Amino acid sequence: MTGARDGFPARWRVGIAALLLAAALAAPFLFYPVFLMQALCFALFACAFNLLIGYVGLLSFGHAAFMGSAAYITAYTVKAWGFEPLTGILAGTAVAALLGAVFGWLAIRRQGIYFAMVTLALAQMIYFIAVEAKFTGGEDGIQAVPRGHLLGVVDLNHSLPMYYFVLAVFLGGYALVYRTIHSPFGQVLKAIRENEPRAISLGYRTERYKLLAFTLSATLAGLAGATKALVFQLASLTDVTWQMSGEVVLMTLLGGLGTEFGPVVGAFIDVTMENYLASWGSWVTVIQGVIFVFCVLLFRRGVVGEIVDLARRFAPGRTEAPPPATVAQTAPGE
Amino acid sequence: MPDWLAHIAVAMPPTQALFGQLLIGLINGAFYAMLSLGLAVIFGMLNIINFAHGAQYMLGAFCAWFALDYLGIGYWPSLILAPIAVAAIGIALERLLLRHIYRLDHLYGLLLTFGVALIIEGVLRNYYGSSGQPYSIPRELTGARNLGFMFLPNYRAWVIFASLAVCFGTWFLIERTRLGSYLRAATENPSLVQAFGINVPRMVTLTYGFGAGLAALAGVLAAPIYQVSPLMGSDIIVVVFAVVVIGGMGSIVGAVASGFVLGVVEGLTKVFYPEASNTVIFVVMAIVLLVKPAGFFGRTV
Lengths: 334, 301
Known about the structure:
The structure holds 2 protein chains of 2 kinds.
Chain A: H1 10-26, H2 33-55, H3 64-80, H4 85-107, H5 112-132, E1 149-150, E2 154-155, H6 159-181, H7 184-194, H8 196-201, H9 206-232, H10 242-255, H11 262-276, H12 283-298, H13 302-314
Antiparallel strand pairs in A: 1-2
Chain B: H1 3-11, H2 15-46, H3 53-71, H4 75-96, H5 106-128, E1 144-146, E2 151-153, H6 154-176, H7 178-188, H8 190-195, H9 200-222, H10 232-247, H11 252-272, H12 280-291
């Protein structure tokens, strides 16, 4: 549904990446680490979601199911079975991957908005299962999950090691998304987004590509949820609600659909907003609604999309016009 | 009697409970039918999935509750006034927001109306929390009648009757009147219909208003049965989406029929396997996707 805006001019990229990495390494000394970890988890979640909407053109309105179920499995295996953190996260992520494969297998039978509705409905089923199953602890969730020692050595109860662990998980996930987008597989995904019948006529089995992308996206969403369960030492119903599915859409839309770094920016904005406005109660929901409306009507490129556009325009040594990357049907109205 | 039959005989619930749940299923089905009907009508004309449909249903119930508590306006006037009020809001919404995104991908319509739903729900939740406000059954419809095998509360009978009437009326309007034929023609080829001198943009606006009003009418009907709560819309809309996936949005009859059938299926599940009653519609949806991916009355989109 959006065009390929593949980021900044190449010569800027390395510099920006180095700056961001330095900032990420220094951040826990300047900001509250739990806030940063929460933002990183959501950023990974949003990147996973963006892989589908931005690069395959599939709007999943049920990504909370993967995040939430992974969080539950990780919290349960770590707390009840005494898994060590890494195995717990792997278990949660594996379950999300499995769930993603099944949901993807069902959902890719329908296109467009039907796909969105199917994923939303399937995710709601997971929500009801989480409400009723015994092991999830119902309204209380699974609380006081021990963070434990990573590989039996690093004590994750201290916030610094935990932060760097979460950062490593995020970077790993981000690198995977990056590699996927820039691989031949990713090119086929973009072809499907732009014109699926044409991709089929070129001999690609598009449903396989879609299923694989969906599963990968669900897996990464699960990884984010599993990590988040350890950060907050909690898995709760909040993680499986449709509101959570909507929130990841919001983050990605705000940051820039189909941009590499947009979901990260969107996640940080959203998490910051929620932390600052926590006392505002449901006005936060209203603000999120307003952001949705605003983004759809006037700001479809998102923050990063707009910045990239500006950067392209002012990049030295570039004379040719920025590529008109959007699909004709979805061209911005301005 | 063979062993397994005895098991089933034991498992069979008393008929009272069975019919009771069937009735609840029919009532739920009536609301699924009215809401998926509205979604189908809006989708047919505007090509967007109206995520705000649940919020508009909730607004209808809240309008009735406001009218009674603050203005002393009773149930029967509300049945007319609340849909008109919500339809007016819907028309404003279409004029101010939706109009600008018709040229874009369908998904933007879903996202925009999702945002609108969040705004409406958030505002009301801010004032009324997530708890429900009671709304009493109108005096004329209190009580119940004995059907011999069960007691049928009068209000519930009225809801089923009213929803059937509404569904039939909508079907008649769209399939059998001149206005409806313009509407169907405009769905197929808006520019041609416009060339014949029919104001298509206004028709689109009115269609959205009509759909929103339909949701509000369902909300007023629901007010005395469920509690009037800011969450009532989002609770039901996801289920209605599943109903729409099963039935497809191509036909009015399909939307209504699958609404009622799935309500009954849900009610029966509550009798035989209550743990699954919340998830059964989603399971049915998954099965339908497997065996008949286009839905039962669907046209592919």
